[in-house]
């Protein structure tokens, strides 16, 4: 059976003609394939060793003649498939690149979380705090149990003490005053020199004195003579000096002169009287002496206590004065009888209460370093001898600092700060004595933006 040959198709420039040709070619190719298969079956049936090669040749020639039509269809299909594959490959490539980039970023973030860290070591500074606590002192003879958590046992007593003393009057009425002293009149001249009473003696700063008596000073000798002044005052009580005698001829004033070996004395002749200030001052001094007397006497009675507060009852003072204001008297006597309240207690339990009170007043994260025992000051607010209760206001100071678990600032405030910014922030915070900053890795100098990567250690 002869094999039909397919006429070659020409490409048309128009789209419809091309599509028709393509369909026609496709149909012919299918028909040729069927013919080829039939031919192959016939050849296989009749083939012998002699015509085997001829049959193969015929098949080959047939395929050679018709390969172009089939290849046209295969090429177009391949082009379409190739384009599809290129589009798909581009999409896959973009997805793959995005996945790789995301993976790298994720790995970088994980490395950041586990490697980047900042540790801040803080040495807290001590802060001095002043505060007070109100404490009740309960007399041991009237109370057997403490009331509340701010009370201690002690003594709340009252004693009556009498004391008297003589005081000098300071009121003074001057009747007369004078300068007392004497000089040595020296004569280094060749002749004796007589000097009459009231002869002037003049100091270098023009203070004027006079001889009290008339004298005759032999040549080469000296004579002691008492002096006086026209205007006596305290400033005229001068130290030893040299006097010129202005009444003599100027040519011999350097040879005849006077000197005092001892200071002059200013003396008043006055009457003393009692001033109101004398009496008031005497009363205050007696009150202080009464307290001192109570300290000596009562302190021995309550030696089991180490702290005492003494309060004199100003409302029940009895006093006796031997004179009154403006009375002429060199001195006067004052006697006072007063009641003195004594509050006695031990300092140690107050220190314990102060410590508890101080710790309750601390902010979160603070710790108490020490209470200054020497700075404990106790002031008596009020007391009642009948009930045996005294209220004590104790003032004290203490040193506090941050504890190891304390919080000096919120971590959120330093997120993302550079090393310099962090140093400025820490330097401006109160309660920090010293600090060190440690970044990991070492080349990083910025605080992480993750709170968990910030560690604050209070030394």
Calculate the mean pLDDT score and round it: 80
Q: What would you call the quaternary organization? A: single chain
CA gyration radius, whole angstroms: 63 Å
- The CATH architecture assignment of the domain at 173-271 turns out to be Beta Barrel
- Based on CA inertia axes, which overall geometry fits? elongated
The percent of residues in helical segments reads: 25-40%
How far from one another are the termini? Answer: 108 Å
Question: SS-based structural class?
Answer: alpha+beta
Number of strands: 21
Order of helices and strands: HHEEEEEEEEEEEEEHEEEHEEEHEE
Biggest beta sheet attributes: 8 strands, mixed
What's the number of helices? 5
| CATH domain topology of the domain at 173-271 | Elongation Factor Tu (Ef-tu), domain 3
- Strand portion: 25-35%
Query: Which CATH class of the domain at 173-271 is shown?
Result: Mainly Beta
Low-confidence stretches: 1-13, 66-73
């Amino acid at each position: 059976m002869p094999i039909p040959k397919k006429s070659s198709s020409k490409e048309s420039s128009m789209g419809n003609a091309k599509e028709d040709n393509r369909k026609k070619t496709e149909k012919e190719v299918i028909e040729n394939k069927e013919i080829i298969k039939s031919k192959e079956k016939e050849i296989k049936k009749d083939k012998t060793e002699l015509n085997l090669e001829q049959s193969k040749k015929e098949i080959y020639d047939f395929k050679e003649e018709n390969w172009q039509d089939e290849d046209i269809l295969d090429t177009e299909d391949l082009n379409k498939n190739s384009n599809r594959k290129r589009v798909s490959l581009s999409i896959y490539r973009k997805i793959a690149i995005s996945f790789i980039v995301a993976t790298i970023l994720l790995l970088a973030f994980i490395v950041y979380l586990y490697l980047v860290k900042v540790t801040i070591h803080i040495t807290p500074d001590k802060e001095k705090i002043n505060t007070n606590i109100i404490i009740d002192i309960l007399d041991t003879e009237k109370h057997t149990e403490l009331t509340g958590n701010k009370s201690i046992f002690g003594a709340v007593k009252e004693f009556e003490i009498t004391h008297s003393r003589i005081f000098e009057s300071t009121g003074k009425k001057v009747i007369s005053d004078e300068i007392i002293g004497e000089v040595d009149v020296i004569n280094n001249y060749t002749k004796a020199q007589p000097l009459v009473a009231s002869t002037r003696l003049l100091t270098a700063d023009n203070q004027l004195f006079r001889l009290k008596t008339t004298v005759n000073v032999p040549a080469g000798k000296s004579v002691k003579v008492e002096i006086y002044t026209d205007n006596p005052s305290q400033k005229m009580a001068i130290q030893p000096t040299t006097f010129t005698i202005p009444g003599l001829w100027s040519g011999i004033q350097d040879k005849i002169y006077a000197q005092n070996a001892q200071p002059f004395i200013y003396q008043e002749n006055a009457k003393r009287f009692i001033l109101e200030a004398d009496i008031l001052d005497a009363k205050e001094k007696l009150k202080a002496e009464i307290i001192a007397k109570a300290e000596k006497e009562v302190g021995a009675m309550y030696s089991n206590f180490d702290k005492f507060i003494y309060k004199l009852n100003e409302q029940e003072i009895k006093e006796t004065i031997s004179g009154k204001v403006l009375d002429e008297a060199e001195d006067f006597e004052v006697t006072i009888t007063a009641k003195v309240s004594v509050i006695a207690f031990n300092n140690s339990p107050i220190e314990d209460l102060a410590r508890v009170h101080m710790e309750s007043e601390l902010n979160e994260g603070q710790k108490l370093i020490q209470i200054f025992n020497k700075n404990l000051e106790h002031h008596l607010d009020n007391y009642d001898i009948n009930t045996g209760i005294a209220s004590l206001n104790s003032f004290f100071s203490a040193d506090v600092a941050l504890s190891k678990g304390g919080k000096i600032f919120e971590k959120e405030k330093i997120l993302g700060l550079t090393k310099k910014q962090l140093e400025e922030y820490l330097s401006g915070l109160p309660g920090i004595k010293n600090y060190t900053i440690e970044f990991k890795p070492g080349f990083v100098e910025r605080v992480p933006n993750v709170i968990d990567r910030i560690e604050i250690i209070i030394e």
